[in-house]
Amino acid sequence: TPAERVAGHRSFPPGFLWGSATASYQVEGAVHEGGRGLSIWDTFSHMPGKVDNGDTGDVADDFYHRYREDIQLMKNLGLKSFRFSVAWTRIFPNGTGAPNQQGVDFYLRLTDALLEAGIQPFCTLYHWDLPQVLQDRGGWENHDTAKAFADYAGYTVSKLGDRVKHYMTMNELRTFVEVGNQEGRHAPGLKLSRGRLAQLTHHVVLGHGMAVQAIRANAPAGTKVGVAENPVATTPVIESQEHIEAARKAFREENAMYLTVIKEGRYTEQYLKRLGSDAPKFTAEDLRIISSPMDFVGTNVYQPAYVRADANERGYAMAPPPASYPHMYSPWLTIGPEALYWVPKLVSELWDVREIYITENGTSSTDTIAADGHIYDTDRVMFLRNYLTQLQRAVSEGVPVRGYFLWSLLDNFEWADGYDKRFGITYVDLHTQKRTPKLSAKFYAEVIRTSRVA
Ligand code: PNW
Fold first, then answer.
1. Which of 112, 255, 257, 338 is the most exposed place for a label (fewest CB within 10 A)?
2. Is 415 annotated as a binding residue?
3. 429-443 residue pLDDT tens
4. pTM value?
C-alpha cells in the first residue's frame, strides 16, 4: 500500500545496531566500594560551587548495585547494544601498579549479564574519570599519563576480551580537554594557557593512539577499536555546493587537533600556524602512533555548528546561533537535526571511513511527572524524531552508519549541571532509585521494533 511504501523510505537497514549509552561516574555510584580509587571527578564534585546544587556522583543511579534491574529495562526496550564505560580507578585504584580484581569482577558480571540478555556490550575505556593520583602528577600535561592509560587499556581488554568485541579508547576528547583544562568548568578545573593546553591535547591524542595499539596487542583477533569523539558538527547553513564545501573544510580545521590528526597523522598547517610558538612539541613517531588505524569512528552528535562559505583564506566562516535560536533544556543544546546527517557524511567522505557509529545523541528535558503518573517528554520525542530522520537520510544515501546509541538510558549525573538536567529516556527518582520509562522510551522501543522512524 502507499502508506507502507512511504514508511519503507524511513527504514534503517537490517542489523542496524540500536543502543543506548552511559558512563561510569554518571551512573555507578558506590564510589568507596569494591576497592575503587578516587578520580578527578570525585575531587571536583566535592569542591564547593563546582557542580549545581552541590550534587556529586557518590550514589548517582546506584548502577553498581542495580545493573541487573537496568538490563531488564534494556530488554523491555528491545535494545541490541549497550555502551558503558570502565572506571579506570576500579581497575587501577592508583592509576598504575597493582590491579584490583574486585573492579575487574564488576565489569565481568556486567558484561556477562548483558550477553545473557542478548545485548552487545560496547566499552569506553576513558569517560573523563582520570585517577586523582595521576592528576597530582600533572594529569594529561604529563607525558607519562598517555603510557599509564595505554597500560590500563591493555590490561582491561585482556580481562574483558572474550566478552567485549568493540572498544572506544576515549569519550569526547574535545570536551574534557577544553571544558576541563581550558574553561575550568569540568574536572580538573584548570584554565591553562594556550601553549600548555596544546601540549596537553597532544598527550591526549597520543594516549588514544597508544591505547589503540595496546588494545590490539591484548585483545583477541577480530576485536574492533575506535573512539567516541564529539567533533565540532560543522553543518552547511544552506545546502548549496559552496556552503557544503565550506562545511567540509571547516570539519577538518575545527577538529584539527582531535579527529583530523588521529585520521591523517598530521596537524593541519593552519593549526600549527595559528599557534605559532604555542604549537605542541612532538615527534614523527608520535604522529605515527596517534594515527594508528582504527576499525570504526564513533561520533557523539548534539548541537550543530553552522558554517558558511567565505572569501577569507580559510574559505569558511562560522555562523554562531543568534540569541533567539531555539535550544533544549540545556542552553548549549541548540537544535539542528541535520547535524546527524552531516557529521557521519563528512567523516566517511573525508577519510573514507567504512564503519561509523553514532556513539551518543539525545537531550535533556525538565521531565516532570504528570498527575496521571506519566512523564510526557514530548520535547525529547520531537528532538529524537527529527534527528533520527536525518540519520535515516544519511543511511539511505549509503553513509556507512552501523548503529546509534541514545544518550541516555537513565537520568544521571550531568557533570557540572548535576542532576537537574535529565537526559534519560527512563526517569530516575533520586531518593528512591525508582525507574519509570518516559514517553520517549516508548517512542524509542517502537523505532527499534520497526527499525524505522515515522
Ligand atoms: C556529552 N557541550 O557531554 C558526554 O559524553 C556525556 O557524558 C554527557 O552526559 C552528554 O554529552 C550530555 O551532555 C557533553 O557543552 C557535555 O557542548 C557538554 C557539551 C557537549 C557534550
1. 112
2. yes
3. 999 999 999 999 999
4. 0.97
